[in-house]
Specification:
It is a single chain. By secondary structure, this protein is α/β, with parallel strands linked by helices. The protein is built from seven helices and five strands; from the N terminus they run E-H-E-H-E-H-E-H-E-H-H-H. A five-stranded parallel beta sheet has the order 3-2-1-4-5, with helices on both faces. The radius of gyration is 18 Å and the shape is globular. The relative contact order is 0.14. GO terms for molecular function: oxidoreductase activity, acting on the CH-OH group of donors, NAD or NADP as acceptor. It comes from Parascedosporium putredinis. Keywords: Oxidoreductase. Pfam families: Epimerase.
Length: 208
């Protein structure tokens, strides 16, 4: 039987936040290809996204839900109506150096999503995504590094909250970009570099 190891049966509806982003769009594309239905949370209408997935998988299996913020749990619960699984992908992508402007918001949004999911009977699975740099910041030519399930990037936490570290040194965070409207996350940095933007060069040398 195809996909017999999946925790949720094909045909289930999965809510994906940040579905118009680089990672979120790829998750939606994979799930739709596996026979799941996807409800994508977006801040504003994204007709190009609906058109892309309708063209690939047919109408009726992908829909969007307008969600301007994550501070209203009842609204989050409405987004989860009849949903079997939730993938919380959306996060702050400003890459700003002020921790007060980003970290508390990300934590609160995640907690609100978890609260809404916990009180929605149909939700059976919840996946909280993150960046690989939440585990470790890769350093070229460093040997003997071992990553386990207990690894956590404590050094990045110290850097984020250390006022002695210059702000422009804190802003750290490839594959196909599915649609020109998708910023592209880290892959988008390559596109920006080709346009003369030096963001990639700034974040490639984090303070160690």
């Amino acid at each position: 039987m195809a996909h017999q190891l999946n925790a949720l049966p094909a045909g289930s509806t999965i809510l994906i936040t940040g579905v118009n982003g680089y990672i979120g769009s790829h998750i939606a594309n994979i799930l739709l290809g596996m026979g799941f239905r996807v409800r994508g949370a977006v801040r504003a209408p994204k007709p190009w996204l609906n058109e892309m997935f309708d063209a690939r998988y047919g109408k009726g299996v992908f829909e969007t839900f307008l969600l301007s913020a994550f501070d209203d749990v009842p609204v989050l619960k409405r987004a989860m109506e009849d949903v079997a699984g939730v993938l919380h992908v959306a996060t702050d992508l400003t890459f700003g150096g002020n921790p007060e402007a980003t970290i508390p918001w990300v934590i609160k949004a995640s907690l609100n999503m978890l609260e809404a999911a916990a009180s929605t009977p149909t939700v059976k699975r919840f996946v909280l995504t993150s960046s690989s740099t939440a585990v470790i910041i890769p350093v070229a030519d460093r040997v003997g590094v071992r990553v386990t399930e207990d690894t956590y990037n404590e050094s990045a936490v110290k850097i984020a909250w250390d006022p002695a570290v210059p702000e422009d040194s804190k802003a750290v965070e490839a594959g196909e970009i599915l649609h020109p409207e998708i910023p592209g996350s880290t892959m988008g940095w390559v596109r920006l570099l080709l346009k003369g933007d030096k963001l990639l060069l700034r974040v490639s040398h984090p303070v160690s």
